[in-house]
Amino acid sequence: MNKADGYTSGVVLNNMAAFFPVNKFSTNGRGPSDYDNQATMIPDHTDDMGGKSHQLEEDFAVVEPKDDESCAVERLHHLTKIVTEFQDHLRERATNHLGYPGNHNCSHYLALSTLLQFNINNAGDPFKKSDHGLHSKKFEVGVLDWFARLWGIDKDEYWGYITNGGTESNFHGILLGREVLPNGILYTSEESHYSLFKIAKMYRMDSETIATLATGEMDCNDLRDKLLMNKDRPAIINVTIGTTFKGALDDLDLVVHTLTHCGFSDNQFYIHCDAAISGFVVPFLKQVPKFTFKKPIGSVSISGHKFLGCPMPCGVLITRRIYINLISRNIEYIASFDTTIAGSRNGHSPIFMWYVLNLKGRKGLEQDVQRCLRNAQYLRHRLKKAGISSMLNEMSITVVFERPPDDEFVRHWQLQCLRNMAHVVVMPHVTVELLERFLYDLTRKRNTWYGKVQPPCLAEDIGICNCVCPVHAYPTCKGGAKPRRALAADRTWLQLEAIMPIKPKVQTYFVY
Ligand SMILES: *Cc1c(COP(=O)(O)O)cnc(C)c1O
């Protein structure tokens, strides 16, 4: 177990630097022409500000206005010019955006631009009256009601709020779990989002990291073993609905079954569902088991800027109303109740979410989901045909494939990479045409990357049957030969085990 005690606050603070690495400075002004003309490119390391003093381009410095009034107009022109150029940069980056899970179809939000004249703040509880007049809590509650319906919980039984993103939603969900079960151990899979490990540290909770299958989903055999080792303490379990890298769905039903099997009664566990990405995908599919409040879960979180495509980070947290009194405090001078992680809260994002949900409706979202799934399958099919190791989980929009050995290529397509893998998250802005351009570039460049050097082996990352590296291309998985424990077989086997009594420790991963 990862013990939480023994942290001095100094350690926690020192670790903060690791929690918040400085992002790539994305305003290096490179356009598409620079990318295509790679011979003229000079490797640029100044965009990585980590630790070192950085070089700020002149345009982006904050400059004191001169006293001379005559410059004011000129100055305004100058600022507008920089922002306009930056827009061009953003437009170019948005059209070649494949790896990070954001939907960049955002132009419909221009209709809300007049709202920028107002400083709107939703501080405090969304359901409680506030003296602060400039808030959008009516929109917020409208959006929350919509999510409550989506996730199967009655209006008077839920509580929730619009957060600053999936991370804050996770912070709130796990906080509730900890307050309901103060002595609980946090169980989360090794492929869960990095916020979960940050939460364990910042809340100083004891935690157990659960192994994953090649699909990326939680290995419930490992969960069972670790639950049995800690039977004397309650369990707070994070279930990921769509893992960040492989888009895997942890099996909620199997997690509940495992808890029951290990003798945990309903009041000895709390389940938080992290549905940051797939929370918008899974509810619109008929074929998959639902995550809903009809099952014994305590909270759900989702990001609003990912699949839904809000132009600023935002998220939703929904929980059962009975839990919220555990953390609610009356704060006289905001004339509201403090039930949220953040104090001041974005008053614009609820209106943006409300707007897009009304614009699309369930039907529009369902169409987005179907198109993304089709396009993801198309990409996976094309990669497979081109002889590139790749994987696509069922009901997922995340295509995993071999990591390109060319940093410039990775940066151009804004791919996310991990070990030998890269991924494309097929969001609503990703068209077949964009995928075609990407595939053309990839297959063309691949000829120059590989020759003397071999493509990487991905057997350990995505399973032997999805790997077509020189070692695994032919022997067992091709030509009708019997696959060595394919991914699907792996899963069925686990599910069977859920129905039948659980045997002693079994190997659910691949054997070579
Ligand atoms: C992106 C993500 C988060 C965090 O969401 P933010 O909105 O970026 O804070 C949490 N969980 C998963 C699975 C994610 O993919």
Automatic annotation (TrEMBL):
Residue positions where N6-(pyridoxal phosphate)lysine is found in the record: K306
Keywords: Decarboxylase, Lyase, Pyridoxal phosphate
GO MF terms, alphabetically ordered: carboxy-lyase activity; pyridoxal phosphate binding
Cofactor(s) listed in the protein's UniProt record: pyridoxal 5'-phosphate
An individual GO BP term: carboxylic acid metabolic process
Pfam families: Pyridoxal_deC
Domain of life: Eukaryota
Family label: Belongs to the group II decarboxylase family.
Record-given protein name: Serine decarboxylase
Species of the source: Sesamum angolense
